[in-house]
From TrEMBL:
Catalytic activity: a ubiquinone + NADH + 5 H(+)(in) = a ubiquinol + NAD(+) + 4 H(+)(out)
Gene Ontology molecular function: NADH dehydrogenase (ubiquinone) activity; NADH dehydrogenase activity; ubiquinone binding
InterPro entries tied to this protein: NADH_Q_OxRdtase_chainM/4, NADH_UbQ_OxRdtase, ND/Mrp_TM
Subcellular location: Membrane; Mitochondrion membrane
Family the UniProt entry places it in: Belongs to the complex I subunit 4 family.
Transmembrane spans: 6-24, 112-127, 133-153, 165-184, 204-223, 243-265, 271-288, 300-322, 328-349, 369-387, 407-427
Name of the molecule in the record: NADH-ubiquinone oxidoreductase chain 4
Main location: membrane
Keyword 4Fe-4S annotated: no
Length: 461
C-alpha cells in the first residue's frame, strides 16, 4: 500500500465535498463515509506491511532507508509503526465523528465534513513528515478545524470563551516551537530530523532547544500547569469535538516527545528526565484529585485525560524501551476509551440535557444498552485486566520501575485515585433507586448510535 495514495485520498475527499451543493446532506454523508472507510482500510493494509518490516515500535527512519529493506521512505514522508498506529486511530475517530454528527449536528453539515477532511490531511502529514518545518505547519493547522468545530457547534453559551482559550494556548504553545525550529535551521542548517539525530549538538544549545520543544509539547499534551484550556474546551465542545480532542489531538504533544525531542536531544532528555517525570507525576495526582471534585461528567473525563497523558509523558522520559512501548499502546487505548466515554455522555446529554453525575442514578433499569456500554467503557478506561489500557499502563509502570521505583509507586497511587470517579459512576448507574430526572426519559440507544459506539469499543477489548 502506497503512502502517497493514503495522503491523496482525504485530499480528493476535500475537493469532492467542496464541489457538492450544501443542501445535499445525504450525499455528503455517504461520500464522507465511503472515503473515510477506504482510508481506514488503506491504513490497515499499510500497518500490516509496516508490522512485517519494522520489528521495533520505536524505530525512526533514516536517510539510508531506501537501501535498508526494513524501512520505508518516500521523499520526506517517513513511516513506522507509531505513524501507522496514529493514522489508524485518526481514521477510526473520523468515521465515528461522522456517525455521531448524524445525531448531534443540525446545521452546516458540509462545513463540518470539510473540517473533518482537513483534520485527516493535516494529521496524516504530521505523523509522516521528517521535516520540522512541515511538522510545525501541519501541527498548528490541525488545530484550526477543531477551533471552528467548537466555535460553530459548541453545546453551550460559553463556547466562544472556550474557543478563545483554546486559540490563545495554541498561539502561546506554537511560539516556542517555531523559535526552536528557526534556531535549529540557523545553527545546524537543516529541518530534516533524520539528519539532526546524527549531528552532535553542544550541551548549551541542546538545553535551549529542549526547553522550546518541551514547552510547546507540554501545552499540547497538556501537563499541569499548562492544562486550564482543556476542561473548558471539552465542556463546551460538541461530541465530535471532544472525541477528536481527547482521541487524537492530545496525542500530538506526546508524539512530539517521542518523535522529535528525545531522538534529537537524547542526552538532555536523559539528564532532565527526573524533572520531567516529576512534573508528570504532579499532573497525575493533581488531575486525579480534581476529577473527584467535579460534578460534570465531561470535566471528570477531561481531568482523567490529563492524568493519563501524565502517565504517558512519564513513560516517554523514563528512556526505557518497555515504557515507551507502553506509552504508545496507552496513547492508542486512551484515544479509544476517552472518545467512547465522551460519545456516550453526549448521548445522555441529548436525552436529558444534563451531565451531572448525580442524575444518572438508576440509568441501567431504563436504558440497559446505553448503560452496558458506559460500564464496559468505564472499566476499560480505568485499566481493568483484559483491556488495552491495562496492558499499556502495566508496561508504562514496568519500565518506570526499572529506573524510578519510588516514582512508580506514587504514580500508581495517583492512577488508583483517578479511577474512583468511574466506580462512583458505576454505582450510580446500577443503583436500584431511579432518579426522577431519568425515569420519564427512557429512550435507549438507536441503531446509528450503537454503530458509532461499537466502532470505538471493539478495538480496546
Amino acid at each position: 500500500m502506497n503512502l502517497i495514495h493514503i495522503i491523496l485520498s482525504p485530499t480528493i475527499l476535500l475537493i469532492t465535498l467542496i464541489l457538492i451543493p450544501n443542501y445535499k446532506k445525504k450525499i455528503i454523508e455517504k461520500i464522507s463515509i465511503l472515503f473515510t472507510s477506504t482510508i481506514l482500510i488503506q491504513n490497515i493494509l499499510l500497518h500490516s506491511q509496516c508490522s512485517e518490516k519494522v520489528k521495533q515500535i520505536s524505530i525512526l527512519f533514516t536517510n539510508n532507508a531506501l537501501i535498508d529493506n526494513t524501512k520505508i521512505l518516500i521523499n520526506k514522508l517517513c513511516i513506522d509503526k507509531l505513524s501507522t498506529i496514529l493514522m489508524l486511530l485518526t481514521s477510526l475517530l473520523i468515521i465515528t465523528s461522522i456517525l455521531i454528527s448524524k445525531k448531534t449536528i443540525y446545521h452546516t453539515h458540509k462545513s463540518l465534513h470539510i473540517c473533518l477532511s482537513i483534520i485527516i490531511i493535516t494529521l496524516f502529514l504530521t505523523f509522516t513528515t521528517s521535516s520540522l518545518i512541515i511538522f510545525y505547519i501541519m501541527f498548528e493547522s490541525s488545530i484550526i478545524p477543531l477551533i471552528i468545530i467548537i466555535g460553530l457547534w459548541g453545546s453551550r453559551k460559553e463556547k466562544i470563551r472556550a474557543t478563545y482559550y483554546f486559540l490563545l494556548y495554541t498561539i502561546i504553545g506554537s511560539l516556542p516551537l517555531f523559535i526552536t525550529i528557526l534556531i535549529i535551521h540557523n545553527k545546524l542548517g537543516t529541518y530534516d530530523t533524520t539528519i539532526l539525530q546524527n549531528i552532535p549538538i553542544n550541551p548549551y544549545l541542546q538545553l535551549k532547544l529542549f526547553t522550546g520543544f518541551f514547552l510547546a509539547f507540554a501545552i499540547k499534551t497538556p501537563l499541569i500547569p499548562w492544562h486550564s484550556w482543556l476542561p473548558l474546551a471539552h465542556v463546551e465542545a460538541p461530541a465530535i469535538g471532544s472525541v477528536l480532542l481527547a482521541g487524537i489531538l492530545l496525542k500530538l504533544g506526546t508524539y512530539g516527545f517521542i518523535r522529535f525531542t528525545i531522538p534529537i536531544l537524547p542526552h538532555t532528555a536523559k539528564y532532565l528526565s527526573p524533572i520531567i517525570i516529576s512534573i508528570s507525576i504532579i499532573s497525575i495526582w493533581s488531575a486525579s484529585i480534581n476529577s473527584l471534585r467535579q460534578n460534570d461528567i465531561k470535566r471528570i473525563i477531561a481531568y482523567s485525560s490529563i492524568a493519563h497523558m501524565g502517565i504517558i509523558t512519564a513513560a516517554c522520559f523514563s528512556i526505557n524501551p518497555i515504557s515507551k512501548t507502553g506509552a504508545i499502546l496507552l496513547m492508542l487505548s486512551h484515544g479509544l476509551t476517552s472518545s467512547a466515554l465522551f460519545t456516550l455522555m453526549s448521548y445522555i446529554y441529548e436525552r436529558h440535557k444534563s451531565r451531572l453525575i448525580k442524575n444518572f442514578q438508576g440509568l441501567s433499569y431504563h436504558t440497559p444498552l446505553l448503560s452496558t456500554f458506559i460500564i464496559i467503557t468505564s472499566l476499560a478506561h480505568m485499566g481493568t485486566p483484559g483491556s488495552t489500557n491495562f496492558l499499556g499502563e502495566y508496561l508504562c509502570l514496568l519500565g518506570l520501575w526499572e529506573t524510578h521505583p519510588s516514582i512508580t509507586i506514587s504514580s500508581t497511587i495517583g492512577m488508583i485515585i483517578g479511577s474512583i470517579y468511574l466506580l462512583l459512576l458505576y454505582i450510580q448507574i446500577t443503583s436500584s433507586k431511579t432518579n426522577l430526572y431519568i425515569k420519564y426519559k427512557t429512550q435507549d440507544l438507536t441503531l446509528n448510535e450503537t454503530q458509532a459506539i461499537i466502532t470505538l469499543t471493539i478495538p480496546f477489548k
